[in-house]
Amino acid sequence: MIGRLHGTLIEKQPPLVLIDVHGVGYEVSMPMSCIYELPETGQEAIVYTHMVVREDAQLLYGFNTQTERALFREVIKANGVGPKLGLTILSGMTATQFVDCVEREDISTLVKLPGVGKKTAERLVIEMRDRLKGWGGYDLLTPHADAANRPQGEAAPVVTSDPVEEAVSALVALGYKQAQAEKAVKAVAKPDMRSEMLIRDALRSMV
Fold first, then answer.
1. CA triplet 49, 50, 56: central angle to 5 degrees?
2. Among 6, 48, 80, 34, which residue's Cα sits nearest to residue 199?
3. How far is residue 68's CA from residue 48's CA, in Å, rounded to a whole number?
4. CA distances (Å), 12 to each of 15, 16, 32, 176, in order?
5. Count of CB atoms within 10 A of residue 146's CB?
6. What CA–CA distance (Å, rounded) separates 12 from 98?
7. Tell me, what's the pLDDT at 10?
8. Which pLDDT tens digit goes with each residue over 100-115?
């Protein structure tokens, strides 16, 4: 099993990133809350991974810290929540918000996330109430004590497409409908905003 990658960040196409490790490129799906904290492309990055092996694919989900990965593993233990939905949940809200929703049994906020219906939200609250005791008090998806120490390299020049299009594509990949994604991105778009900022602000506006 692959538990950690240390290499050069080659591409960011949220929610996917490509990391080159000694000539081998690893595609890794990451929550947007983790992608925001990655270095620029061309620089070195350390990513903690959770590997999912299926009959038709071997998938890697990545996180900046072991704590983030631990929370993801707790989330996908809930009945009816797979890795893809876990990724969407931890992209649509910070860990602090998620823990708060569970503690307050805030079903109405959870169902705003794509793929989370009322029954799934209720299961998340019931099944995770005890698991998340002691997780509160700080934002688990913000780098802190166990954050990976990322060496700094010289950034390589990168050709990017339109940030608005990238942001919309990322939201659609996370499960939001095309029209909903376009509306949210356009509502927060400002000149010279990078795609990561557009995605972050659009996600915040929908929770």
1. 120
2. 34
3. 9
4. 8, 6, 11, 19
5. 12
6. 25
7. 96
8. 888 899 999 999 998 8
